[in-house]
Design brief:
This protein is an all-alpha fold and 426 residues long. 79% of the residues lie in helices and 0% in strands. Helix 10 packs antiparallel against helix 11. It is globular, with a radius of gyration of 21 Å. InterPro entries: MFS (IPR011701), MFS_trans_sf (IPR036259). It is found in: Cell membrane. It is a multi-pass membrane protein.
């Protein structure tokens, strides 16, 4: 076998397995809603490109509003209650969609509110999860941990969209979201079985919230590898959200794909993500962490160009769209696994929550502008024209990541650090 599966390493860590299972269950539901929410907007509510851009923008707005303060909270309190709170809030928010559809008051503003609430929960709970993983397994096993989480997420991506397509066709998209709400409830129940005691956070003393936020910002600003990753990931997120605002509309309106077709294409996309999850550790060790991140950017840019080149006609469009999904998922996974491991390994434990929050703020907070720009670009140039422009900018970013970014020089994971780095150092 090229990728032998052995139940050793973290598979022998009982609480890691429980954490992995909880995350896998919520991932399964999330992939259903990731398809069902935009399809609800595009097909049921006949959203315009600008309305889809607003939906994408509002879904990531909480990163701008709450990330930095959330990082301080994560470093001040235990992470597990925050992770449980994420699951509870997501479940309750998603229940609004089927209730609104049943009551006849479903509208785009309702979807905007639901997206905002779910992402607010993710901003706090998702950052807490990343910090909790580093605490649970140790920084020297982060690539292994993130590879396992991503492989499971890829498996969910392989199966959930197909089920989502069937549920949407049988029950309509709003009621398919009921399954997502249920997955978050089950995830919370599994999380409660994790028994490893979490060390109490160090008291902040008289330090103000703003001083602690500044400490996280200064860490990113004065750590070259974090600064380089922050810049290129910010640009990638802008482009990715530009594409997200137009891709579902392009697939359903220009290519004539329906909910079932979209489900199959997302499933095939999961194959690319799964392959990358299995290869990420090996590629990172062979080519280096920074170059592997650049390879991921290049693959996503080529996938965006592939979307723009799709010809009309159900058969060719379906095949080409699915292959592009697989290439995109492969590139995004290669990038994210090595990026997440590198930024955690370079960060002192006491600043881990604030580093994650700062990086998420810097990289995702501008994304609403990308979503709105995607909607405006599609309005001006048409859906296909907008994708061409996005792809061209993606190729420029990939070239920079591979040949100019300081992050390309990072070949191995930095050693575990206990103190904050000084200006100019790793």
């Amino acid at each position: 076998m090229i990728f032998p599966i052995r139940f050793d390493g973290l598979w022998r860590h009982r609480d890691f397995v429980r954490l992995w299972l909880a995350q896998g269950i919520s991932d399964f539901g999330s992939y259903i809603s990731r398809l069902a929410l935009p399809l609800t907007a595009a097909v049921l509510l006949h959203a315009t490109p600008m309305e889809m851009g607003v939906l994408m923008a509002i879904e990531v707005l909480p990163f701008a509003l709450f990330s930095l303060h959330g990082g301080v909270l994560i470093d001040r309190v235990r992470r597990m209650p925050l992770m449980l709170g994420r699951d509870a809030l997501c479940a309750l928010a998603l229940l609004i969609v089927p209730l609104a559809a049943w009551g006849g008051w479903l509208s785009m503003p309702v979807l905007w509110v639901v997206g905002f609430l779910c992402m607010t929960a993710e901003v706090i709970g998702g950052s807490a999860h990343q910090s909790y993983v580093a605490m649970l397994v140790g920084k020297d096993r982060l690539v292994e941990a993130h590879s396992k989480f991503t492989a499971t997420s890829s498996t969910a991506q392989l199966t959930a969209p197909g089920l989502a397509g069937l549920l949407i066709q049988w029950l309509t998209a709003p009621f398919a979201i009921l399954f997502t709400a249920g997955s978050f409830v089950i995830s919370a129940l599994v999380l409660r079985t994790v028994k490893t005691p979490e060390q109490a956070p160090v008291s902040a003393g008289n330090t103000s919230v703003w001083q602690e936020i500044k400490a996280g910002i200064d860490l990113v600003r004065h750590t070259p590898v974090l600064r380089a990753f922050a810049i290129q990931t910010t640009l990638w997120q802008l482009l990715n959200h530009m594409l997200g605002a137009v891709l579902v509309l392009f697939a359903t309106r220009n290519l004539g794909l329906d909910a079932g077709d979209m489900g199959v294409s997302y499933m095939l996309g999961g194959l690319g993500s799964l392959a990358a999850a299995l290869m990420a550790d090996r590629l990172g060790r062979r080519f280096g962490i920074g170059p592997t991140v650049g390879m991921g950017f290049a693959a996503t840019a080529l996938a965006w160009l592939g979307f723009a080149l799709i010809v009309q006609g159900w058969g060719p469009a379906m095949l080409w769209f699915s292959l592009c999904q697989a290439l995109f998922a492969c590139g995004a996974t290669l990038f994210s696994i090595n990026y997440l491991a590198a930024r955690a390994a370079v960060t002192p434990d006491a600043l881990l929550g604030r580093m994650i929050a700062t990086m998420r703020f810097v990289t995702v907070a501008p994304a609403p502008l990308g979503a709105l720009a995607g909607g405006m670009l599609a309005t001006a140039l048409g859906l296909r024209g907008a994708i061409y422009v996005i792809a061209a900018m993606g190729l420029v970013l990939a070239w920079h990541a591979l040949y100019r970014s300081p992050a390309r020089l990072l070949l191995v994971l930095p050693k575990r650090t206990e103190e904050a780095p000084t200006q100019g150092g790793l």
